[in-house]
Prior knowledge:
Elements (H helix, E strand, L loop, with lengths): L1 H33 L2 H26 L9 E7 L4 H20 L3 E9 L5 E9 L3 H5 L4 E8 L8 E12 L14 E6 L15 E6 L4 E5 L4 H24 L18 E6 L5 E4 L5 E2 L2 H5 L4 H13 L11
Parallel strand pairs: 4-9
Antiparallel strand pairs: 1-3, 1-5, 2-3, 4-5, 6-7, 7-8, 9-10, 10-11
Amino acid sequence: MRERQSLETSIKTIKQIEQELEDNLGMIELGEEEGDEDVVTEAEDALAKMQAEMGKRQVAALLSGELDNANCFLEVHSGAGGTESQDWANMLLRMYVRWAEKNGFKVEVQSRTDGDEAGIKNASIMIRGENAYGWAKTESGVHRLVRISPFDSNDRRHTSFSSVWIYPEIDDNIDIEILDKDLRIDTYRSSGAGGQHVNTTDSAVRITHAPTGIVVTSSEKSQHQNRANAMNALRARLYDIEMKKRQESIQDAHDSKTDIGWGHQIRSYVLQPYQLVKDLRTGVESTSPDNVLDGDLNPFMEAALAHQVTGSDGAVVEDIE
Length: 321
């Protein structure tokens, strides 16, 4: 009954849109025939509003997956390359925090391991808000940076890689079986940049899931809270693997992290010798990498969501050097 009502509502909405479109096109034609610019302008404004509304409806339709409305965990891992890669990982972490803030999401730091000289080796955050996972889920993959290195005294161009992985927070009503015998739980002192806020007790928690090799950590709160956070993250990761199996995707989240480098990137960020950000899946580009790195990611996310729905046309997207 409810599905029938929903279908009838959708049909009614489509008919209303078609009628409104026809009316405004007719008004433009009439205004042009009579030389009435006010009528033409009013109808064009109405069409622009319709276009914006249809854009919102399209995005809403794309965010209709089973867990799209869930909060999500976002992990950043630096690739090979030491300081260069660790600095790039920190830039990515900042980019996603800025994106979340701009879109009204709340961000909670779950864990963070600082780099040897700069940046981070890895970090995990929780993004809370409506459709957080739905928006962020297409960002999983390897991200590539090309720039003149600020750490190279010879001002040479360097290429760095870091990976980003997104997992939905799993509702307690979803049954994910985790056996105590499969877990190794370690406590340790959380690391930081130093100073009076460095943790002096073994409050950080690391949980290793033996059957899958998944390792999750939490180090920003009390030991009790860190353990709860880490278990939530583990459940999310295991659910993500189960979903991939259901969708007949053979690659699970843990194994896909083993190669952070060439041939696996989803997006390239070139800062020198020219400025360009290009998504290698959809072909979407931006010539303002500073804006992208400041969190302007929605055009890339929307295109990737639409790409998931429509499917690839089989064309190979050319990489950028």
